[in-house]
Each structure stands twice: as structure tokens, then as C-alpha cells.
Amino acid sequence: MCGIVGYAGSKQAVPILLEGLKRLEYRGYDSAGVAVVSGGALAVARSVGKLSSLDDLLSRRPMDGFLGLGHTRWATHGGPSEANAHPHVDCAGRIAVIHNGIIENYMPLKDGLAARGHAFTSATDTEVLPHLIEEELGDRGDLPLGPGLAEAALADAVRAVLRKVRGAYALAAVWTRAPGVIVAAKKDSPLVVGLGESENFIASDVPALLKHTRRVVYLEDGESAVMTGERCAFYDALGGRIEKTPSVIGWDSAAAEKNGFRHFMLKEIHEQPRAVENTLRGRVYPLDEGRFGRETGLTPELLRSAERVHILACGTSWHAGIVGKYLLERHAGLSAQVETASEFRYRRPVLAPNTLVIAISQSGETADTLAAARLARAAGLKVLSIGNTLGAAIPRQADFNFHTHCGPECGVASTKAFAGQLAALSLLTLHAGAARGFMPREEAREWGAELQSLPDLLRRTLGLDEAIREIARELFAARHVLYIGRGVNYPTAMEGALKLKEISYIHAEGFAAGEMKHGPLALIEPGMPVVAIATRSDVLEKTLSNIEEARARGARVIALCTEGERRLHGKAARVLELPAVGEHLSPILNILPLQLLAYHVADLRGCDVDQPRNLAKSVTVE
After folding, report:
1. Of 22, 110, 325, 617, which residue is the catalytic one?
2. Taking the model in full, what pTM does it have?
């Protein structure tokens, strides 16, 4: 959630830190700060609000130095304020720490530190860390130390402190006595090291590094890194030296730019044809001889032996998972259960043998999904991850991985990553159905051909943008909106409602259309917008009846239908006709106009589309 950037090298640190933090703005934040070590002194600058405020502060109070840390904070313990912003420092102002995560036992630690004379200036859990490091360093804070001894002392102190804390953390620490050194460590929160030429970096996500290097190392839980501009060493939780193999990122910083679009979200909506193309490329061929099987590690034998599927996800990925349930049950004969990971991990789930667990996460770092996947693996089950971030924590924990290759998604509201997840689940269903003998060969060929036609159909659907903008002008003042759908498009309705509420702040709910009589009809008032998904399906007639129920109570219906469908014209206030596609693939097309509708409504309302209030891109803490 919070953004972390660190730099050690021969260049001025502040411009690099600010540029890196700007590339992490999509993660969400409410305050920001930097710390620089120079000439044996520590300088810190912090501000509330956008990075522009911090930039203005630093233009008035410049900070020179070649070693520094930067941070954007999303408030958990303590509200947004300068005092609560990171970095936090010790009593003597020699140690600075930035931290993403939650220190669960910070209160007893803080009480003990206060009793021993430490003074606190914030309401955060993070502030205990520099004070604990200060205590571990003890008298070494004042005694002469050579560069190597100072580096080792700081690394040992950080490891000792981490043995005392409970919770999640990705952190970095600097000390004025070790002027060229950053010590970083992680547990349950993402942290990546960037390896450059005579300079090294740390960050909470890859986009912060790509202007400088594509060679990265992902830290595992319990690992730490000790870096200077010239070298970087990695250690396990006990301080033993370990070797890490760098990964090379296949996309560059230009992929994360807006490319002329007004917002990242709009750019990413328009990138969905390419995103789906990338997810499908080379993977439609039979499982035992094609790229899908080679890349994921899934075999026909494994899919035949699976008796059920348990899908774990949160938010938008959960909606994708529900679509996956419909597909796997109907077209692969696999009993499927979908659960929000935050609920799964805190109950006592009955996990039967021969269950394939699918963990879906755009970032690959979602804390609840990661914990749920670990729980499933501990129970002896095989885990397949579906995600968009190569090398993230969840795919590293999983037995099998399906990387969607959608490219960086910077808008907080997920769009192209969702389309990639739906395409991945459709491919999985195709291969599972064929492997299990549940899907006839001819049907599998037709399914594959239709999958490959999706990018062009998505491009055609983008042609509805202007019509959707007109609908948004009529809708942007609404207070409540209902979305309804049936079958595989019930989760599409929920996702459409989520997009509207999270970026426009209009209350919106998605319902199964057949449930309207069981409560939702009571909400309908004259003129209330109801968005109905009525594209071609086996239950279209029933959906049309549900639309009539809403109209009879004064609803203003906005309907999605298939090209050539005339029954909604004259009944719905607005009709959007989408290209014809099989019902099983229709959510991939149907969600696109709902994303555009949410975008245009939010833009008309003057909302911060890419960084909606109170939300973060990657939920890496509970």
C-alpha cells in the first residue's frame, strides 16, 4: 500500500526519490516524506497531501546527499499528518526508518521504550522501530567505528529488532554512522531491490525502479539486504549470507506512462484488447503440447484428478473468481467454491483432498490472499496463482503460475488486470474441460476460436465510448445506482457497481437479477438508474422480465444487449449494443462499457480517478 523508495549511489538522492515516489502514486497515499544522509548528518522533510506539497517544501529547503529514503504513507495507525508521515527517527536524530505494514505489538513495545526515556512524536506503530534500533546500537552510537563495522552494526541491530516485532513489514533503515548504507528487510509486505551501475535501489514495486534498471531481486519473507552504491548483499533471518538471482523486467518505464490519455484508468481501459491478446497468446493450443501447459506446469493428469476447485481472492479479483466458478462448473464439470480470502483465512475451512486452490491477485501481494494460499498449501493442497505481477509473493508461494502479461496497471481501480483474469479463467476452463473429457472436441475448437476473436471484439466495443459519455452526463448527479445481471454476468454487475462506487463515490450495488423481488425492488424510486446486463444468454428472457419489474417501479434503465437485439429499444432509456459473443465469454466484453461509464461519471464529478480517496492499489496489510 505505502510507497517505499531508497537510493544509494553517486547522484543526488532527492530527485531520484521523488521521481520514484511519483511512479508509486497509484498505490494510494495521504502524506509523504524523505530522509537524506550527508556529511554525517540526517535531514528529514515530510508533508501532508500530494507529492507536490513535498516537492514545494524541498524546493524551499533543498537537501543534498547521495543516500536517501522516500515514502508515501496511507494512514493506518494515526491520521494523516506531518507528525505521522514517514520517515521516523530516533531520539538522537541519527536513525531514519520507513515502513510499510503493521507492527501488531507496537503498544507494549512503545510503552517499554517510553518507560526507558524514549520520546515519541507520532501516533504510528512505525515509530517504535528507530527507537528499538537505537537501543540495539547502544553505545556504538557514540563510539568511533570503521565503515565495515558500522554497516555490520546497523544490519545486526535491524535483525535483532525484527525478532522482537510481530506483524507485517517492508522496511528500510539508514544511520548517520554508516553514511553509505541502507539496510532493508521484509515480511508479508513487498520489497524489491534494483541493481544498477554504481548505484542500487529499493522499492515497494517495480515501476519506481524502471527508469534506472530492469535488474531486480525480490526479497522473500525473513530476508534482508544491505546495500551501498557499489554492492548489495542478501541475508536470511539469522544473518547468514545468501545468494539471490536477479530477474530482468520485460517492460520499461514508458509502459507506465499515460501516453496522451487524461488518466491512467482511461489508458488502461483502452489497453484491454492488447492485454487480453497478451494473456491468450500461444496458450489456446492443447494443454499437453502447448505453451499453457509448459508455462503453468498444469498437466492433463492433474486436471483430471482434481475433484473440486477452491478459488480465493479479494475485491475485483473475487468477482473474476465468481465468473471462474460458473465457467468451471458448467464447462469443465468441476465443483467450484469461491471465497473472499479475508474470510477463508480466519475460519476453519474443510479442505478435501484432490482440491485445486486458485489464488487470484492483480498485484500478487494481496495480504489476505497470500495468507489464504499459504494456509491451503500447509493443508497439503496444490495452489495455482493467477496474477499480473511476475515474481510477486503469491506466485512465489504457489505450485503453478498463470501470469497474464497485461503490463503495469497504475489506476487504483482495476480494469485491464480484471480482463486478463477473466481471459485466464476462460483458458483454464477450456483446457480443464478438454482434459477431463467434459468438453467435446468440436466445442473446444469453437471456444478457442472465439477466445482469439476477443481482442477485435473489445476494440469494437471501445467504439461505444462517446455514447457512454452521453449516458454519464445524465447519470453523474445520481445518488444511488443498481446493477443487475444473471448467471455469469451477475459478478459482472457486481464489478460494474464496484467500479462506480470506488472512483465516483456514488452508492452502487450489484445484484443477481432474479433476486430483485427479495429486497432490492424496495430501493427503486422514480428516475433511479438501473444498469441491466441483458446480452445474449440462456436466461435472457428472465432478465428481460426483471427489467420490466424495475421499469414498472419507475427505474431509468440503462441496458447492455447484443447487436441486433430489438426488445429493449423503447423500454430502456438507453441501450448499448455490444458485439455478439458466447455467453461464457460475455463478461470480458460486458465489463468494458461499465468501466467506461464509471470513468466518465467520476471525471464529470471532478473526482481523482486514478487515486480515489481512502483506497490503495495493492492491499498488502490487513
Report:
1. 617
2. 0.74
